Amino acid sequence: MNVRPISGASVDARARRGRKGMAALAGVLLLAVTACGGGGGSDSGGDTAKGGDSSQAEVRKSRAQVTIAPKDGAKSVDTSGELKVTAAQGKLTAVEVKDGKGNKIDGEISGDGATWTPSTHLAASTAYTVHAVAKDTEGVETTQDSDFTTLTPKAAFLGRFTPEDGSKVGVGMPFSLRFDRGITNPDDVEKAVKITTEPAVEVAGHWFGNDRLDFRPEKYWKAGTKVTVDLNLDGVEGRDGVYGKQDKKITFTIGRDQVSYVDVKTKKMKVTREGKVIKTIPVTTGAPGYETWNGQMVMTEKFVQTRMNGDTVGYEGEYDIKDVPHAIRLTDSGTFIHGNYWASGAFGNTNASHGCVGLRDVKGAWDKNAPAAWFYNRSMIGDVVVVKNSADATVAPDNGLNGWNMSWEKWKA
Questions:
Q1: Per the residue annotation, which of 121, 326, 354, 356 is the catalytic one?
Q2: What is the per-residue pLDDT across 305-328, written as a single tens digit (0 to 9) for each?
Q3: Which one from 121, 326, 338, 354 is the annotated catalytic residue?
Q4: Architecture of domain 258-406
Q5: Where along the chain do its domains lie?
Q6: Taking the model in full, what pTM does it have?
Q7: 36 is catalytic
Q8: CA 88 → CA 85, 97, 185, 348, distances in Å?
Q9: Which of 143, 198, 236, 379 is 20 to 30 Å apart from 150, CA to CA?
Q10: Residue 338 designated active-site
């Protein structure tokens, strides 16, 4: 078979063309690799020679330092004065303190972000958790968590309160607390009683001795006012080593506005509603030597019939009436406004009682048309009876719920 020879020049040309093709292909591959790598150009974000992709760089630790007191795991912590969160080389941005039920403790971060303190005391025998967040000057955050348990008191105090939760009362009814132990830390106890009203009105507390705390507005409540009392005494140290244990919300509503005015000289009582006289009733008040107190007196108890014995109020052997009708208490010392069936000619004519205000009535309290029955059935706890023109002194503010006989300035002082 004849074979045509290939010239050397033709072979070299094809070899050169092959090398150019390989070079071109290598250039394309290099361009592709360069494009995928994202390097070069004016982009200064990635420096592969110094560690490559910035997303893989180690996150810097915050310079801020958070300290929580008491220390983590502490037991028998005092309910006041021990909880505090501080930050160094940074500022606190959030602090959350919760009890085991998820209830939060209110508190405040200082203006410079250095400290957080609670705005109230803690409950006794309760476990708390603390979560705090702070940032350093470059905005890098750090967090700190802790938990602790408060002390279990060896002794406790209670406050008996009036009016009752859910009740409707007259415009003169204060909120009164009487404690079973003398209180030596009155400011802490008073701070733990928060009163809000709708519509809003300023309410202030006043201590009578060391075992009674009353709250009232400057003037009688407005009819229809809703009053809410947050009694947050759990954990309050009322006296050394003696802690409160009540945590209760109490609400009561103010009814219609009824105030009655007794004039000892005229021996008449004017009953007013919303400032208008609705009835004038003849009365008898304290005889000479037994005069009725002057002043504003709040109704605290009502009895369709009750026994009145002079021995209980310092008038030994002078009277003992087992069935006094339609009796309403005005003072702790024994002043009542009540029905009277044994002095039929006295009403409007003679002051003949031992200091009470008497209205005509019948034995057995059966006559609904008797003046005493009419008044009793239209009165409620918290209504006010004002006595004037008596020869006696003004009733003491703590004799019953009669703080209205003290000026607003003295009350708040």
A1: 356
A2: 999 999 988 898 889 999 999 999
A3: 338
A4: Beta Barrel (2.40)
A5: 65-150, 155-254, 258-406
A6: 0.82
A7: no
A8: 11, 20, 34, 79
A9: 143
A10: yes
